[in-house]
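Ticket #4471: complex job returned nothing on first submit. Input attached below:
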Amino acid sequence: MASFIQLMVSGLATGAIYALIAIGFTLLWQTSQTINFAQGEFVMLPAFFVLAAMNMGAPYWLAALIGIALSVVILGVLFKAVIVDPMIRHGVLPLVITTIALSLFLKESVKDFYSSQAQPFPALVAPRDLHFLGAVVSLQSIVVLAVAVATVIGLHLLLNKTRLGRCMQATAQNPTVARILGIPVGRMVLYTFLINGALVAIASLLISPIYLAKFTNGEALGMAAFIAAIIGGFNQVRGAILGGIILGVLDNLSAAYLSSSYRGAFPLVILIAVILFRPQGLLGRVEERAV
Amino acid sequence: MLRTGFLVSLVAASIGLAGTAHAQQKTVYMPAILELSGAGAVSGTNFRDGMLMAIDEINKAGGILGHKIETPVLDTQSDAGTSRAQLQKVLDNNPYVVFGPVFSGSVLVTQLMTMKAEIPEIVGGEAAAITQKNASYVFRTSFGQQFSMPKIANYIHDSIKAKSVAVVWVNNDFGKGGRDNFTKEMKDRGINVAADISTEVGQADFSADVVKLKGANADAVFVYLNEEESARFLKEAKKQGIKAPLIGETTLLGQKVIDLAGGAAEGVQGHVGLTVDAPIKAVQDFAAKFKARYNYVCDHNGIKGYTGVYFVKYVTEKIGKFDGKAFAEKAHGITITPQEEPGILMEAKWDKNGDIDRESFLGEVVDGKQKIVKTLPMLSKK
Amino acid sequence: MKRFGPLSVAVAAAAAIGLPFLLKPFGVYLISMWAVLTIAAIGLNLTLGYAGQVSMAQGAFVGIGAYTVALLTAAGWPFFPAFILGGALCFVIGWLLGYPALRVQHHYLAFVTLAFNTLVFLVLRNEEWLTRGSYGIAGTDRPSLFGLSTDNARVFYFLCLAILILLSAATWWMLRSPWGRAFVALRENPIRALSLGLDTRRYTLMAFALGSTLGGLAGGLYAPLVQFIEPGSFSLNLSFNLLLMVIVGGSGRFFGPFVGALIAVLLPEWMRVAEGYYLIIYAMLVMVLMVFCPSGVIGLFEKAMKPKKPPAAPAAAAIKAEATPQ
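Support reply: We reran it on our side without changes. The output follows.
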């Protein structure tokens, strides 16, 4: 039983990380039909901004702020202006190819201009372990979980309780009608890119102490976030957190009780089942967009 | 299409031309094909940096037989198909020897071609299969798994005196090869393998694996993972309070893993084939030079690259000419000591299959440093 | 396009036949790889470009074909029966993979096929009794044809080229048959196609099955070309790469995959003059290419040709439809 609780708790913590990354992924899809195959690399990169700033002598808090700012500018504004905007009217696939190329570009750039070696990354909180019903969980994981939940609540409030959020939702649901209603659609889309830029930077700060900063980190993270986003509901922010946690817990349970060499298969089977029988995701709405 | 062909030949020519461009000095073409991108990038980069350092030293001292070494480094993208293409590219320019690759799959595809072309290939691969295919032109720079695993097995049997053992391995050709050789050795010694746990490349969460380990309750745990995964595993093992000794082979006791794992690597023990912490002055001097030049701590692949070049230099000077066939004949069965060739760092012997024999070490992590507790003699000197 | 087309095809054909005599073995290997990947990309172009079914699993089919040939020839089978069986196996699996496409479309279909690709990778890696697992299979022999060995790189290239020509001719013929028109109808407006009495169900499955078959046949040539296969060669990366070839070449255009494969195989090689930075430059070029010609290289050509020829060809009309925002 203790081991079961251990698996659940660890899975929850890992799932929270996936969720944090999946939220931004979902947001971009909703407002701009961008399937960002570079999302994992987006999480890998800010850690190196922080490390670079610290190498230049900045203290951690300043470096972290610099990292978030650079991430919002480069992975938010620049990504939208240089890549997404010119391509968006040409359909989903050319943009998919571009983000795949972008992921290669980011990985290789970090490897060539920073280092191919994994780098230790300063932790946000002291490395302490907490005991809980016979299971052990690190303080770091709890912080990650708390930040992920807080982010989702914050986003939920933003989207549902503020005028800005409702404008963003309207843009996501039907840009044409939103435009007729006088909503500045372009600016709303930009906001989602800014939010994604900030989210990936926060995710990067939270997980790099656990995963270490390395140029290949994005591969596994991006795929996990992608699966989490789809299981939870590709068009719902709330869905992403459920998807992430299902994925984290399922991965642990299947590795422990079913087969460790097929641990990667179970989430995929669930993904296929979800798409076939509930394509809007577990928490998603049916998409009403007339394509 | 025609322009395509033109460009292809241009590219091909540019590689050949690089030799003639500074042709005032005679050169010898010894290209390297290495994993500079993709899954093997860390290993490939280390190998490259060690290799290039040796080449610079030799060139500064006048080269080999008065020829400067010319070594373009070609990236295999850690992919067998690309390795084959890159090897073909360098074979078209008649190399004397070829360095790399490190990934065993890539070695297996290229060694058939170098054998046909009668060109020695100095590889970093550790899979047992490499030297079991009668490829008479392949030479290792480190132990094959068929030699390193018995050493680990002896250690677990004789020093730890374990009756049961659990194996945690990374599920790729490197990890699978190690795991298969290891379980075979365990069976031979009558040690029960209580848990056999496969993990994924890039795996983030090791809690399930550690839970399984706890359940197995083995006397010792053998960990055979890549660097970052080793570090993540050690952190999780410490968190969940694994009591059994954690045994590793080379990677697990590397300084990189110790740094990455923080305190969690404390007490880890095992066998180290090649290490910059070896209690040998030449090796430590090399490590310091490497650190000064590249600003990171070299792993065993860096030593492989460095000593591989000196191996070629020594054999070539013995045969007195640049002849791949003569090289292979001479190199099989050769022993090189640091007295004769300081760059070899440690005495090394190559057998008729191209397998290497060296001293190796038993180590332990103490106070955030790898500490060598025992030096194992060369297999041929027992 | 009408005058330009045959001329460029003739030039390309002359180059495809003449080049191996000018190139060193490395160049011959590269153009053999081009021929093999073009076959797989033609298959994906059929599924994606013509029938509009997004598949991200083409790499898995290349893998299934490659493993079939490698395992059967290692067990003593001659090459050609193994090659054909590999294609047939992919036809059946492709047909089955088509079923999800009957329920979901577009990006959802892409996700299902993406998951399928990774599942195939896991099976190839884990089922060691069948596939030899992560050790891979080395030394698949090159086939001999009427007693003539294709061990020589140039001879093997011509075998690949001959199969490429044969399969593209078959595809060309099929696209001009009622089937091909049915595929396009499926892409343009599935509901109208259904209301016009088209059995969309059957054509959707067929689009998957035929595209996958070409992937499998490409794999059947990949195994003896590289002479070493391992599960990692057929992971998502290959599928992404094939998708890139189709889109960069020009999706839904017959010669798109030929150009796309040429770019994906040769461009990184040319960029190697930039040494360590070559992949960065390659990735940048792909992004630039996509930003400036999202309808691919062939699409760019068609656009360049269009002003001179006001009566739009059907293909040109298709781009126009694509270029207008939805």
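Chain A has a mean pLDDT of 87. Closing as resolved unless it happens again.
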